[in-house]
Fold these 2 entries.
Entry 1:
Amino acid sequence: ALASREYKPEDTVVEVRGHRIGAGGVTIMAGPCSVESLENIVDVAKAVKRLGGHVLRGGAFKPRSSPYSFQGHGEEGLKMMAAAREMTGLPIVSEVMEPSLVDLVAEYVDILQIGARNMQNYPLLREAGRSGKPVLLKRGLSATIEEWLMAAEYILAQGNPNVILCERGIRTYETATRNTLDLNAIPVVKSLSHLPVLVDPSHGVGKRAFVRPMARAGVAAGADGVIVEIHPVPDQAMSDAAQTIDYEEFGRMVQEVNRVAQAL
Ligand code: PEP
Ligand code: MN
């Protein structure tokens, strides 16, 4: 398989606007769950940059559990992200949910995000592969590691080598946290595959008090980076408020994960 270490022993490095993911060191991606307004995303982008982040995240097309919840600003949200990139130089990552929208989203973003709910949407994976853009592939809520790597295979098989995996927690019987961040998956995937692996402690735990400790744990387990949800006033975030951290907590997290990486 193209994703396997047998096929390619050396680590894959994905480059976005001069930043190298998987080349050693910790890549930090951060931003709001949803792009809310131009003012908000520019404010967050400046904080991400100032506090040591490398990539700005923000959802414009949102996979909400309820059809009555805010679904995102769509293309307008992508324009706001692009403006924030213009002002800070940070590359941007945003989710695409439909095969027919891959070309549109790819016009704006530096990295296409495939969400957990779409990990096995094979037509979407194929389109993302064809786009030639780097793809951040989140693990499905109930996907085995084997299924996750096979999903990556769909993208790689289109001739697109730039796949970044993201462990974001899986469904278990535990209800104290939103999901269970599967730290096992990080060293397991690093041994099976050459692809870079990020950890998403925000969706992995779902509660803001536990995001920073699990970010540290993910990096200690060998993750190539962390993706987290941040907001100037987390309680006012339009989606995923409970797991969103403020700038101060984010700054602390960046310092700590960098210290963990240096100790390895
Ligand atoms: C997100 O990143 O906001 C998101 C919806 O993530 P996931 O697909 O992992 O649930
Ligand atoms: Mn979210």
Entry 2:
Amino acid sequence: MHGPDMWRKVILRTDRCTKQLHHDVNFANTRLERHFTNLHSGCILGRKEIASMTQTETLIKILLIHGPNLQLLGKRQPDIYGHQTLEDINSHLREIALKKGVELKPFQSNYEGAIVSEIGDNINWADGILINPGAYTHTSIAIQDALSAVNLPVIEIHLSNIYARDDFRHHSYVSPVATGVISGFGAFSYDLALEAMVRRLRENSGE
Ligand code: DQA
């Protein structure tokens, strides 16, 4: 093919490539704008650069720990703990975490030692810890020690308002080493805790 027809095809193809490139840049911009200041408008990036930046967008890593009996959520005393299952809570939280550029690692155990190990094992992975320690809230010096040892921001979460319940629930071994405590908002306590943790971590990193 020669002449004007060939040039029309070349122009069309170039136009399509330019549109795709703009689309990719916009996509990268919207997803990364909070994290990258070097993405000026008008700056043309190659696909490889965009791909590598997209890979690094998950900057914050949060460990989410659920203590004993929380695997029974949905069935366990729904008048106190609500109807949502643990899987409902984890998948909802993962979804909102992703939108915030956060990688969330949920973990549940009924064993104090397993929780202690999970905290220690993530000393180099996690930027922060969200924890609903269940009944271990009121008994576990070992969990308090593990949280102190890793020295990360911690938010203690409870579905129920522990201060409006039995006297033995009024004392927490975790609160003294927590950045903050959110208690009494049902499954929404987790949303609030995630929001608070992300803000705290972004403040700490000067974003
Ligand atoms: C709980 C409160 C604790 O007192 C209780 O032992 C739990 C759940 C809550 O989420 O409200 O297991 O942590």
